[in-house]
Amino acid sequence: MPFSDASYDPQTLGLLMKAFDKAWHEVQSLNPGCTASQLSTTRKMMALRIMDAANKGERDPERLKDMAVRAVDGRDFG
Questions:
Q1: CA distances from 73 to 16, 24, 41, 42, 66 (A)
Q2: Do residues 71 and 41 make contact, with C-beta atoms less than 8 angstroms apart?
Q3: Residue 56 CB contacts under 8 Å (≥ 6 apart), including other chains
Q4: How many domains is the chain built from?
Q5: How many Å is the Cα radius of gyration of the chain?
Q6: At residue 46, what are phi and psi to the nearest 5 degrees?
Q7: Is residue 33 part of a domain?
Q8: 2 within domain boundaries
Q9: Can you tell me the mean pLDDT for 54-77?
Q10: What is the pLDDT of residue 1?
Q11: 5: in domain
């Protein structure tokens, strides 16, 4: 997933952050016993999945959130 040329306007960045925050809240509630290392890896996977989808044109915060959650539960990353 190359991101070297990716940039986001303030509105898009806001919706990406909103999607990430909602996804993070959901993942944390489903996995309360994660270690700090697992949490760091999880956050990175979620952020990469959201950015990848945004780079492909996705702008729906709910769909972005769902993609991020699926990325870390093993159903849709890569």
A1: 20, 12, 12, 9, 11
A2: no
A3: none
A4: 1
A5: 12
A6: -65, -45
A7: yes
A8: no
A9: 86
A10: 47
A11: no
Give pLDDT, residue 63.
Answer: 97
Which residue intervals of the chain are DSSP H helices? Answer: 10-30, 36-55, 61-72
Backbone angles phi, psi at 37, to 5 degrees: -65, -45
19-30 confidence digits (pLDDT tens): 999 999 998 888
Q: Is 64 exposed, middle or buried (0-12, 13-18, 19+ CB in 10 A)?
A: buried
| CA angle in degrees (0–180, nearest 5) for 70-18-64 | 30
Domain that holds residue 20: 10-72
Q: What is the pLDDT of residue 17?
A: 96
Q: Quickly count: other Cβ atoms within 10 Å of residue 65's Cβ.
A: 22
Name the token pair of 41. 């890896």
Which is higher by pLDDT, 12 or 38? 12
Please say if the pLDDT value at position 73 is more than 50.
Answer: yes
User: 1 in a domain, yes or no?
Assistant: no
